[in-house]
Records
---
Amino acid sequence: MVSCKSVYEPREDSNMLETWVKKYAFGKVLDMGTGSGIQAIAATQKSSVKSVLAADVQKGVIGYCKKNIKNKKIKFIQSDLFSNMQGKFDTIIFNPPYLPQELKLKDLTIEGGKKGYGVIERFLNEVNDFLNPDGIILMVFSSLTKKEKVEESISNNLLEFEELEKQHIFFEDIYVYLLRKNEFLKKLGKNGIENVKYLAKGHRGIIFTGLYKSKKIAIKSKNPKSTAFGRIENEAKWLKRLNKSKIGPKLLIHDKDYFAYEYIDGDFIIDYLKKSNKNKIKNIIKIIFSQMRAIDRLKIDKEEMHHPIKHVIVSKNKPYLIDFERAHYSKSPKNVTQFCQFLMGGYAREIFKGKKIAINNGKLIQLAKVYKNHPNRANFRKIVDSICK
């Protein structure tokens, strides 16, 4: 066979993976990072495999494989992971470059980024869009890649894994994992939600984005590590009620496991205040106060409005309240007074100083106390006017 310096020669990890490819591969197969083509060839040996698409980022590798591998089931293409990919597959095979990058050495066949797991993370962040609902992923990696980081990325992308094999070779452990879409991801797919991507994680919830009826949405589910009970159902309940008063992003779908709402593309409140002028800031504060007043009148305590750094997003000069997981009924809600606390605190005070917005803390404290005891419209207006006139 003609040699090619850029081809990854089969080693122990390749042989381990090959064993499981011969056992599990089926249907339409994608061999990502094909290298020498060993996994593509192994897949074709199964009668249950209909076709194999073998991809590699390096042009020289694809040229080598086309010249040396003649198999009607295999098609070779050049692609940086999924950049040149279309369709969905039943089996996706991945022997990634997984070693931490050395200072000078840059070998695409073995190095997976500065910490080793960069290429794997990129792969996992995209793979669900190309995997059929009941499809599988066969992947090999090393303990040098930081196993806990790989498993965290698997979990964040709503995949579940099974360790098929582990071998200790010299100074590292080599693992072969079988991955599948978890039941939650399958449920989202059945409900018409596609292109699901991990966005952020909190103490009690995890946020994903997705597409629903061709529109971008946000999806919130429970953080598996949280011991809190019923938070998802509680938040969806309050958001649905507040939507009737045109507060919060529009709730679209909800059940006991998750809820989905329109995605708000904007800035968190602090970032908006930093980049906006005095008039825009005062207008946003007025609108937020009006929403706080509306929630007070509904006898709902949102909580955390004294520190709403990640609870208010401003989009097109309109504020949206998010994160209602701690919302509850209260005879004496404190949304207005909590927002007063935020405006007097260090985060906002320094910004207001630079924007020449004067807030008299002593006066605002007194007005907030009066409103707390007599939460009527007149006392509310005095608070707003003290800041926004």
Note: The mean pLDDT is 90.
---
Amino acid sequence: MIARLGTSVVGALRSARDLWLVLLSTLAGVIRRGGAQGELVRQMHAIGNKSVLFVVVTLGFIGMVMAYE
């Protein structure tokens, strides 16, 4: 049981490290190119604005459940 838990923790840590490395390499590429930074900001803005409706609806349902409880 402990071995399975250890394997799961090590796997999670490796995944977190891989995601961190992807983030760092993406940011390094943006900084090196300079001009692509505007594109990154544009895409982040578009993704953020498109997810607002989903977040509001989800929070609305969560609020209704909490009020009911």
Note: Helices lie at 2-33, 36-68.
---
Amino acid sequence: VKLPPNREIIQVFAKNYRLDGQGSIKDPVGMQGVRLEVDTHIVTAATPTLRNLDLVLEKSGVQANHHTVSSLAAAEAVLTRQQKESGTVLLDIGSGTTNLVVLEEGEVQHVAVLPIGGNNITNDLAIGLKTDLDVAELVKIQHGGLSAHAKTGPLSVLVNKNRHQFDAEEVHMIIEARVEELLEYVDKELKKIQRSRKLPGGVVIVGGTAKLPGIADFAKEKLELAARVGKLQPLAGLLDTVQDPEYATATGLMILDM
């Protein structure tokens, strides 16, 4: 595989092997043949970005053993073996981007990073409500919701001893428009691999924005797939401390490093 000089391979996921024309082989070790081929999904990243990330970790006193895809780490923390086998898309909705990974037959089928996150919802609220960003963030956290979970009538937030009032329907309209745009991006990625509306395991949502009331039902309606907010698989230790969808990626990274 030829790569530009400023990019390097992070991970290579082998989907299946072919041995002398015989396909759909998951593990060819121990088999005999002449010609071995493999279908792989290769994830690359910009070299300067990786070096900057390593530099930040080094200054924090942390050494990285290897690099991985954050959405894959989140999937490791919240998906069951059955979901990984049957076909599931995991959405890790962060502050600036949304990381997407599709797992099927236990293998990574597709990885994507979408340029929409929780900050975009906050920015939209600040513009639409003509208010400050800290006020908009509080409105999103305290009163945000989608469809049946959206509040009605006037609502207010208290910031620096000043009370700000807004119309709940306007807040709902702004949030719903941005989340709908995000899910349209998701569906475009699924269409690229012919998996739109065809994943038995459905959609699992993690990240801070996963706490937005009604987001699972909204995703189910727009993507026409079963949807739920991800919950951590049984773990020993400080489970209560990290039992929150925004900690899924960090927890998954620790699991992968064990």
Note: The mean pLDDT is 91.
